[in-house]
Design a protein that fits this description.
By secondary structure, the chain is of the alpha+beta class. The protein has one domain (44-182): (Glycosyl)asparaginase (Glutamine Phosphoribosylpyrophosphate, subunit 1, domain 1, 4-Layer Sandwich), CATH 3.60.20.30. The chain has 4 helices and 10 strands; from the N terminus they run E-E-H-E-E-E-E-H-H-H-E-E-E-E. A hairpin with an 8-residue loop joins strand 9 and strand 10 (177-182). Helix 3 packs across helix 4 (120-134). This is N(4)-(Beta-N-acetylglucosaminyl)-L-asparaginase. The active site is at residue 44. Residues 1-23 are annotated as: Disordered.
């Protein structure tokens, strides 16, 4: 829906239209998309879990974002894009523009950075920086946790998305707590 060329007549490649009319006013799609996004209205859920025996698991949902082509496979089911875990290093989960995430496999890359000894925050930041180099204005964030239970997150700063909120639950904490990182 809402792509060019018309998906019922062509098999792509597809793009979002430059302009879209919304209730009598014309906005660029980016203006419309980001003006509607805030920390309370996205619904992708990413999770990294470290079990009592040390096994690491990760997963992510998909939010059903606008402009998906019928039959399109998003980033959530792609190993390394939406999430990735390895019990010898840690786990990561990503949220954001799935078409960008699929190209860079940020969750896999973050776990590999942790395997090389990088702490989770630095691994998340390096993944975001790597994507920024090629797609400076992408929407996305990554959470990471290593096998010792250290965790971190990073996000790309775009209009309407300057901070990333995530929850942490740990036996070391009295209760689950909300964490916040500033986007770069």
């Amino acid at each position: 829906q809402n792509v060019v060329p018309d998906s019922s007549k062509s098999c792509g490649p597809y793009k979002r239209p430059e302009k879209e009319t919304c209730k009598g006013e014309e906005k660029t799609l980016t203006e419309k998309y980001f003006s509607q996004r805030n920390i309370r209205n996205h619904d992708t859920i990413g999770m990294v879990v470290i079990g009592a025996s040390g096994n690491v698991a990760s997963g992510t949902s998909t939010n059903g974002a606008i402009h998906k082509i019928p039959g399109r496979v998003g980033d959530s089911p792609i190993a390394g894009a939406g999430s990735y875990a390895d019990s010898t290093a840690g786990g990561a989960a990503a949220t954001g523009d799935g078409d960008i995430m699929m190209r860079f496999l940020p969750s896999y890359q973050a776990v590999e950075y942790m395997r090389m000894g990088m702490d989770p925050t630095a691994a998340c930041q390096k993944v975001i920086s790597r994507i920024q180099k090629y797609v400076p204005k992408f929407f996305g964030a990554v959470i990471c946790a290593n096998t010792t239970g250290s965790y971190g997150a990073a996000c790309n700063k775009v209009p309407g998305f300057t901070r990333f909120h995530f929850m942490v639950s740990s036996p070391l904490l009295a209760q689950p707590t909300e964490q916040v990182v500033d986007c770069t």
